[in-house]
Amino acid sequence: MRVLNTVGPLVFLPLLVLVLLGGAIAPRTLAEIAAGVPREIGAFRAGEPDETFDTSGIYAYIDGAAEVYLAYGMRACLARRFDHPNGGIVLDIFEMPDAAGAFGAFTYDLDGQVVDIGQGALLREGWLTFWQGRFFVSVTAEVETPAHREAMLSLARATALAIGERGALPELLHRLPSDGRLLESLRYVRHPTILATHLSLEPGDPLGLGTDSEAALARYRDGEMLLLVRFPEAGRAAAGLEAARRLLATPAPAGREGLWGAAVQGSLLALVGEAQSEARVQRLLTAALDPPEGEEERP
Questions:
Q1: How far apart are CA 172 and CA 100, in angstroms?
Q2: Which terminus of the chain has fewer CB atoms gathered within 10 Å of its CB, N or C?
Q3: Sheet holding 135-141, edge to edge
Q4: Integer distance in angstroms from the first to the last C-alpha of the chain?
Q5: Which DSSP symbol is given to 13?
Q6: Cα dihedral angle (25, 14, 70, 262), rounded to 10 degrees?
Q7: SS3 breakdown of the chain: % helix, strand, coil, rounded to 5?
Q8: In the predicted model, what is the mean pLDDT of residues 7-18?
Q9: How far apart are CA 202 and CA 247, in angstroms?
C-alpha cells in the first residue's frame, strides 16, 4: 500500500468533469465487486484470499495514512495481492459513504499522469489511483516495469467495470468560480486535519470546521487561493467568519502573501488569499457566495 503523498507537480484533470451515463446501476457491495475482479491479470495471480479491513483494522494495514481515508468516512477496505516472480501488485478498494468522499480521497494527492479509468484516474511510477461512485481505488506495484504498468492499468480497468456505479461531484465544487481556476488545484475536504495539509492557516481548527462541515479549495491563474466552506448551520459560518477576521488581523506569518478577505452568506464561508488587488478579493468572494445559476439562494 502506497502512503499518500502531496509532493510533486500537479496535473490537469479533465476527468473531473463528470459525464453521467444513462441508466442507473445498482450499488454493489465490496464482496460483489471483488467477485467481479479477475484473480489473474496476465502473469499476475492472486493466490491468497482477499483481506478486508474495517475502520479500526485499517490502522494495522496502512501505517501512517489511515487517518486520510477515515477523514473522508471510510467504511471498509478490501485488499488483494497479485503475485509475480519479479514483484507483485496490490489492489486496495476503499468504500466511502458517498461519491463525494471517494472524490475527496482522490484529490488528496493529484500528482501523476491522467488516464481514462473510472471517473478520474492518475498514474505515477508504481502507483495508480482512481475514483468511481463511492469507491476510491489504489493499485501499487512493487517494481516499475512495462509489464507491471500494463498489469496495473488492466487491473484498474477491470475494477472500474466491476464497481459499475457512478456518482456526482460534490455540489460545493460548482460554486467555485471557473474563470481562471486551475482544475489541477481542486481539493475537497471533510476534516480540518486534511485542510491543514493543503492550506496552512494556524495550528488546530482555526475556522471551526469540525468533522461535520465540507470545504472546497482551489487556486487561480494569478495565484489567488479560494476556500469555500459549508457549515451545518449559519451560526457556525458566522463564527468562522469572526475567526477568519481575527486570524487576518494578526501579523502575517511567513508564507502568507498578498491580500486576503473573508465573507459569509447563510451557512457558507468564503476565504480568499494571496490576491493582487482588493477588487480581485471581492470578485472571488462575491462569485463564490452567489448561488449557482438556476439555484435559489439558501437561507
A1: 10
A2: C
A3: 51-53, 76-82, 89-95, 135-141, 127-132, 121-124, 113-115
A4: 44
A5: -
A6: -120
A7: 30, 25, 45
A8: 37
A9: 8
Taking alpha carbons only, the member of 235, 223, 227, 210 closest to residue 175 is 227
pLDDT digits (tens, 9 = 90+) for 125-152: 999 999 999 999 999 999 999 999 999 9
Are the C-beta atoms of 72 and 103 separated by less than 8 Å? no
- What own/partner pairs with CB < 8 Å and gap ≥ 24 does 27-35 have? 27/133, 27/134, 27/165, 28/162, 28/163, 28/164, 28/165, 30/76, 30/78, 30/93, 30/95, 32/162, 33/78, 33/93, 33/135, 33/159, 33/162, 33/163, 34/78, 34/80, 34/93, 34/162, 35/162
Q: H helices then E strands: how many in the chain?
A: 8, 14
Gap between the Cα atoms of 84 and 88, Å rounded: 5
What span, in angstroms and rounded, lies between the C-alpha atoms of 188 and 177?
A: 15
Domains of the chain with bracketed CATH = 14-163 (3.40.1000.20), 171-289 (no CATH)
Look at residue 275 and give its three-state secondary structure: strand
Q: Which amino acid makes up residue 221?
A: R
91, 213, 103, 216: which is closest to 154 by C-alpha? 91
Q: Is 42 helix (H, G, I), strand (E, B) or coil?
A: coil
pTM above 0.90, yes or no: no
How much is the pLDDT for 3?
Answer: 35
- Minimal CA–CA distance to 45: which of 6, 83, 95? 83
Q: Between the CA of residue 195 and those of 35, 97, 189, what are the distances in Å?
A: 36, 19, 6
Mean pLDDT of the chain: 88
Query: Which helix (H) or strand (E) element contains residue 138?
Result: strand 135-141
Tell me how crowded residue 284 is: count the other CB atoms within 10 A of its CB: 28
Cβ atoms within 10 Å of 226's Cβ, excluding its own: 25
- Cell 441508466, residue located: 23
